[in-house]
Amino acid sequence: MLEKALRGNKSYFAWIGFLLILVGMGFGFYLRQLGFGLGVTGMSRDVSWGLYIGQFTFLVGVAASAVMLVLPYYLHNYKVFGKITILGEFLAVAAVTMCLSFIVVDLGRPDRAFNVLLYPTPNSVLFWDMVVLNGYLFLNIFVGWTVLEAEAKSVPPPKWIKPFIYLSIPWAVSIHTVTAFLYAGLPGRGFWLSAIMAPRFLGSAFAAGPALLILICLFLRKYTKFDAGWEAIQSLAKIVTYAMILSVFFVLCELFTVFYSQIPEHMYHFLYLFVGLHGHTGMMPWMWASTILAAIALIVLINPKTRNSPGTLAIGCAAVFFSLWIEKGITLVITGYIPSPLETITEYHPTLTEIGIVVGVWALGFLIMSVLYKVALTVKTESA
Amino acid sequence: MYNAGKIIIGIVIFLALITAPFWYNLAKPSAPPKLELGTQEKQCVESKAFMQANHMVLLDQWRDEVVRDGKRIYVNSAGKQFNMSLQNTCTKCHSTKTKFCDRCHTYLNVAPNCWDCHIAPKEQEKLAGRSDK
Amino acid sequence: MDDTRRSFLKIAGLSMLGFGAKPVVDAVAGAGGPKFEKDPKAFNGKRWAMVVDQQKCLKAKDGCKDCVLACNSAHNIPSFNNPKDEIKWIWQTSFEHAFPGQENPYINDYIKTSLKGLPFLVLCNHCDNPPCVRVCPVQATFRRPDGIVAMDYHRCIGCRFCMAACPYGARNLNWSDPRPFIKKENPEYPTRTRGVVEKCNFCSELLAVGKLPACVEACKEKALVFGDLEDPNSEVRELLRTRPTIQRKPQLGTRPQIYYIL
Fold this sequence. Notes:
The complex is a heterotrimer of chains A (384), B (133) and C (262).
Chain A: H1 10-36, H2 51-64, H3 67-75, H4 85-106, H5 115-118, H6 125-152, H7 162-184, H8 197-223, H9 230-261, H10 264-274, H11 284-302, H12 304-307, H13 310-335, H14 352-383
Helix pairs in contact in A: 1-14, 2-4, 2-7, 2-8, 2-13, 3-7, 4-6, 4-14, 6-7, 6-14, 7-8, 8-9, 8-13, 9-11, 11-13
Chain B: H1 4-18, H2 20-27, H3 48-69, E1 73-75, E2 81-83, H4 86-93, H5 98-108, H6 122-128
Antiparallel strand pairs in B: 1-2
Chain C: H1 2-29, E1 35-37, E2 48-53, H2 66-74, E3 90-93, H3 95-98, H4 105-113, E4 120-123, H5 131-135, E5 141-143, E6 149-151, H6 161-165, E7 172-173, E8 197-198, H7 204-207, H8 214-218, E9 224-228, H9 235-242, E10 258-261
Parallel strand pairs in C: 2-10
Antiparallel strand pairs in C: 2-9, 3-4, 5-6, 7-8
């Protein structure tokens, strides 16, 4: 079926070529990092995780969001999602691949990555994260491909695929829960030490992922022969709306606990995030941008009029996506380190090399997504 | 078979490419390097044959015993004791890393990363510089 | 036929394994073969700990850093001269950084007047319940039976989960090759490679040959006292019996094993 990705019009190949150039550039920057060490990044002794782990965390959410299509379609027989479930699964494949790539580029000794398998360590959350992410990647490739292949042959999908589909539902929840546990179980980091971390992660995931899917569907509707169906897009928009409301609510819960209890170790991080601490305001512009985008998103999405019109819906979804990208991809990880456990402040500024690698990995994700979507959409339009 | 000609040519090119390293090595046979032990000592921690075949395994064992179990003394098959240390035992005899370790490793095209951390014997630093340059 | 092929493969595989492993098995497990032993000179503690007597650390006001320098040269610690890449096993910091949350204007006054504004020494706490060990995905950092939280530089993958987990900021990554930044190499101890994490090891390499940690040896004022908590007659136990001591962030449940006399 993969050969279907080899036929396309000029703009398709221009897009693929453009992504390949970005991937190549990112790889060039990565070679530089391999040669010198992680010192080429802006990370430091105090802020020892940065953009890479931030992007990883955000993308785990995007990957997990496939369940928002799989669950209604397969568990509740919600036929409207039939056309786009495959898009959710293939988006998950691209997102998990990016996650794994971000983990690898973040390792100080990527040559020893397989030590995680050689010395399996069940008490480490990172070990479990490796297990669930790879499992989820497998499930989505396997399920997506099998179902699509059946569709290409105009036969119903094989019965034995069902257990894998059902398994992928709790599995999606597990990847983001385990990722939240990476943070939520560390005794010395007040910013992350919160029981609501996993629910918060899931809330923002189920907003950001489907928001991206809506944007993709709107794009495909406009520029290709593939129409996801307005009802499907509207159902997704409702999911995004409720998930975004939950996500903002969870953040407000954090703010209440932190500021009403006034425990310094927890409060300092939030002060740094929103108003700056001891004159350091590195995260402040980002956080306010995210807050304003979230407000715009809620206004646009809650109002049925703006939610029902493609133009404003796109604005609302873009606002959701970028608001949460900032919140999880940038501020969540970095603010955990500021102030440090010794209450000193070292700020973090990513370097050009680091940003180049991040762009390269995103391009790789888009490349995988584009190729898989090309295959899926060709099958769909041919069989229709 | 469709396109039989093209496929056969393709297979031939594929086989040529995949076996290229063997042809390349056959074309330039090279003699095993002459190693300088760097010592007058006749006896290593184990027999010469054992060391030649298994020094890497032995060093890994030493590493794990020292780092993970805190045991630092090696009693060899003859009952003689050694401090298990690449940097402080091995290189006390094998004082010429470039003419001993490196020559054979280069010949066999293996690149152990011991010396990224363990300090090579002094005399070497002047001659060859650090391995990590 | 299928059966015979399978059993042939089994036997072939096993005998390959056997031949490959034979010399090693001979060497390691054979009768009269080699053994691995502890150095008879080694100090054998059951629970190593340290008491830092800040009242004795008076020379620090004249800029004494003997303990820090001794550690740096014993362990080939590079000096990058910038806080971003910095590697520190033991270092000096002020009270509010060593004991955040415990500062108040009056204790700051006490430190200024009664302790002459001395800096506090901080290092890995060799916790009884170490979060860094809990999170490490490859057991590159582990707790030894004698309580030392050790690092295996050979195994570390540089994921830096331990740095996120340590509530004492005791862990360092080698952001680049440290060798060009080592002033004078100590041939007795290895350097590290880029991309691995390192921290204070309570000088386990010195304890193994019956020597005290380098910082303890270096302090002329005897402000650092090292010993075995399980030994009721040890000097550390004597100090803990007779002087009030505090630990860093004991409320986190890590059970840190560096005790401070103020």
